[in-house]
Amino acid sequence: MSDTTLNKPPVSVGTGGMLYAxxxxxxGSAKDLSAFTISPFIFIFSLPxxxxxxxxxxxxxxxxxxxxxxxxFSLRLFISRHIGSFLFFEALYFICLFLxxxxxxxxxxxxxDLYISQAQNLNTLQIGTGAQADYARSVTFLFAVCALxxxxxxxxxxxxxxxxxxxxxxxxxxxxxxxxxxxxxFIVLFVACVCVFIVVERSFAVxxxxxxxAMVLNQDYFDWSFAxxxxxxxxxxxxxxxxxVLGALIFKCLSMPDKNA
Length: 261
Description:
The structure is a single chain. The protein is mostly helical. The protein contains nine helices and no strands. Helix 5 (83-122) runs antiparallel to helix 6 (130-165), helix 6 runs antiparallel to helix 8 (183-216) and helix 8 (183-216) packs antiparallel against helix 9 (225-250). The model is unreliable at 1-6 (pLDDT under 50).
């Protein structure tokens, strides 16, 4: 059972901890958490909270753990005591998101203008051309980098939240220490997330192209759009929750099963 009165320094959970976190994210449950806490079925609540207020979602996960193990933890009282730190981290997070998305929109406009100028010079039907392929690769790389930065920010804020729960005097320093201590695991998690979504989006593009071709030829086709929307939501929930589970393991707020048990 976790004890919020004890200061627990972050530990290295290794590859096993990273794989365990991904597994729990994919399954949507963990033995130390209340039912449906990290389930994809509550994505309407969990995704906005995790993406817009990562620290709050980390607090809620810890609250779920305390309910599961019957440990006293007042979330309202805890947030009121750390409201200054919470608002500071949230403001910093939104500033970073604002700068990041402004850069992405600027870069996207530049790439689009470049592609249009190249297409006009080629004066050919733009279906499967080299310019189109270059544009698609550039946009994919741009969004992959954007997603990677967001994942890093969410990871840092989740670790900062667990640092506050851990009663560390310097949550920024402790979060950075925890991130560096488990950097290989986080890198594998980030790369896995980005690669999986690239495969999903490329698969969707192939199915969409086949659908367009079938429409042109007046043939029957199956619309995979809703299936891919559901798949994206499920995978996003899985990887985002894996980040929070990994952070909880690092600060011993959650525990992996004992192999000797």
